Amino acid sequence: MSAKIWLEAARLRTLPLSISGILVGSFYAYKHYSDSPNYWIIFGLAFLTTLGLQVLSNFANDYGDGVKGTDNKDRIGPQRAIQSGAITPEQMKKGIIIVSVATLIIAISLIYASFGSDNFGFSLFFFVLGLAAITAAIKYTVGKSAYGYRGLGDLFVFIFFGLVSVLGTNFLFAQTLDIKLFLPAISVGLLSVAVLNLNNMRDRESDIKAGKNTLVVKIGAQNAKRYHIGIVVTAMLLGLAFAIWSDFEWKQYLFVLAYLPLLKHLKTVIDNKDPKALDPELKKVALSTFLFSVLLSVVLTF
Length: 302
Known about the structure:
Blueprint: H1 3-10, H2 15-18, H3 20-28, H4 30-33, H5 39-68, H6 81-84, H7 89-115, H8 120-139, H9 153-174, H10 182-202, H11 204-210, H12 215-219, H13 221-245, H14 259-271, H15 279-299
């Protein structure tokens, strides 16, 4: 089987969104810890751990939705590997195991680089957190108790893509929690949830037929639209609140450039009548979130 098929199954286009929180958490620590010989080692291992978790999540979603029949002719998005027959369920299961083990090894290396052998409590906590992240990546669609089929996907995305990603990464450097950092952590988390919500708005009809009870299915199309507008606007406002609380200089407000495509996106969602037309918006919100994180990370080094 060619590497191209596995790369397509890994859905590399989803990776920029997954590292957004890592960037913010790392560069918030840059001024105080960049001279440390371990700074870039920790950053690199955190980066690789996150990529591993995202690829694992993509493989697991492909497997879970594929074997449940959720990925079918009614689905609006691009065909996945099991759906198309390019990868069999058994092959995908082996891929999930391999990526899980590799990601856990990288995560353990990250924990050791951060805490060494002197902080057993922190090391144990992050080891458990790593296992939880791997489990969450798999259980979104896999198994009878898959939480993505019970409307809990938004909560888990918010926790792991926002709070854990930003605050957890920063803690690896600082070994303390900064209350101020909760604001951009929540922002990144909400924008990540917005991408999932868009996906679920697009797939609402096919999810209903397949018995996948996402939050959108539970609350209905109109409420999902209101919810979407609310989380995106809240994310932008919290980003500004963080800048004000941090006494940003005028040039540090460069990150608001990422709000321009988000504002245009909101108008598209408000005017939307056809769920299929939301498909291109997923990429726009994901890249806008990545741009927000990159620009915020850059201005944090000023």
